[in-house]
Amino acid sequence: MQTRTFGASDLQCSAIGFGTWALGSDWWGPHEDPDELVSRALELGVTFFDTADTYGQGLNEELVGAALRRAGPRRQDIQLATKFGYVIDSRRTAHAESERPQDFSPAHLRRALEASLRRLDTDYVDLYQLHNPRMDAIDSDELFAELEAVKAEGKIRHYGVALGPKIGWRDEGVAALARRSITSLQTVYNLLEQEPGSEFLELAERRGVGVLARVPTSSGLLEGNLTLDTRFEGNDHRRHRPRSWLVEGLQKVEQLAFLHRGGERTLAQGAFQFILAQPAIGCVVHTINTRAQLEEWAAASDTPPLGADELAALDELYRSNFGLAVTA
To answer: What is the C-alpha separation between 233 and 272, in angstroms, rounded?
Structure first.
């Protein structure tokens, strides 16, 4: 497993991280035993674990903390990232999957951090991220002063911004990169969905910030196992994707066979290598819920890096929308 450094900071981690979101829910389909997955991840050299207090209303942090405790790594050998900003004990504003109310006040930051530390069974967090902040949070000098305060107290090592839940929120990302002393910015970025991630990457490189790329396989399209007959059932969040995403996406995937490089990489590993080729990337984080996924993706950083010809071909495909008509 290769290691990466977040920009100009001293935050180093495995090039491939463990997105733990699925361990506390069925929004990405059924998952295998969290203890076994975390233990195997550590064996494979994965050191970066990304969670959030809102995942399962704290359950995810508890699962991650317990799994790591049982696996027994030295605390200094792993990097724990979590997020704050939602009032997790409040009702959702509309339906069962709508966003909860947010609170980015300094007082809420303190309460949320102490609760996360208890659930994760640790006395510090390596990376504390604003979770889906709007511009008012980015504009809050009081919030960032409090982040500096808890950092000085040793309760967090670094802080950053996690944008989402969908692609976008460009203005918030640009403002955070330009005006705040963040270590990281997390966003959707993959070879099929590059905007506004490419703009963030350029600015992050200039500012000495590391980018956390999530959804590296475009919600499974770049894993090579979806077909036109695929249906997303139950709570699988991909059921919210439009049908055109699947239909057009599969037409694009058909043009990516060269990424296999004669069997040296899987399609997903080629997709990971595309992201790792971007200088500002600090870590690639994918939601993991099976050992098979973990084995394949953890090995991605040790597969052949993309050559200049492959990167040029991907750039041309993306600029031409893979030869497909642009849909509204």
So the answer is: 27
Active-site residues, by number, are 55
- Round to whole Å and give the CA distance between 275 and 191: 7
Q: Are 53 and 24 in contact (CB under 8 A)?
A: no
Query: What amino acid is encoded at 294 in this protein?
Result: L
Task: Specify whether the backbone of 275 is left (phi greater than 0), alpha (psi in -120 to 50) or beta.
Answer: alpha
| Percent of residues in the chain assigned helix, strand, coil, to nearest 5 | 45, 15, 40
Topology (CATH) of 3-225+263-306: TIM Barrel (3.20.20)
* C-alpha dihedral (45, 306, 281, 197), degrees to nearest 10: -130
The secondary structure of residue 200, as a DSSP letter, is H
Are the C-beta atoms of residues 137 and 106 closer than 8 Å to each other?
no
Q: Residue 260, class by beta-carbon neighbours within 10 Å (0-12 exposed, 13-18 middle, 19+ buried)?
A: middle
DSSP 212: E
What's the pTM value of the predicted model, to 2 decimals? 0.92
Q: What is the DSSP letter of 99?
A: P
In tens digits, the chain (328 residues) has pLDDT values of: 999 999 999 999 999 999 988 786 555 556 788 889 999 999 999 999 999 998 877 788 999 999 999 988 999 999 999 999 999 876 655 445 557 789 999 999 999 999 999 999 999 999 999 999 999 999 999 999 999 999 999 999 999 999 987 777 899 999 999 999 999 999 999 999 999 999 999 999 999 999 999 999 999 999 988 989 888 877 777 787 888 889 999 999 999 999 999 999 999 999 999 999 999 999 999 988 889 999 999 999 999 999 999 999 999 999 999 999 876 5
Neighbours of 281 (CB within 10 A): 21
- Residue ranges per structural domain of the chain: 3-225+263-306
| Rounded Cα gap, residues 324 and 328, in angstroms | 12
In angstroms, the Cα distances linking 263 to 250, 260, 270 are: 20, 5, 11
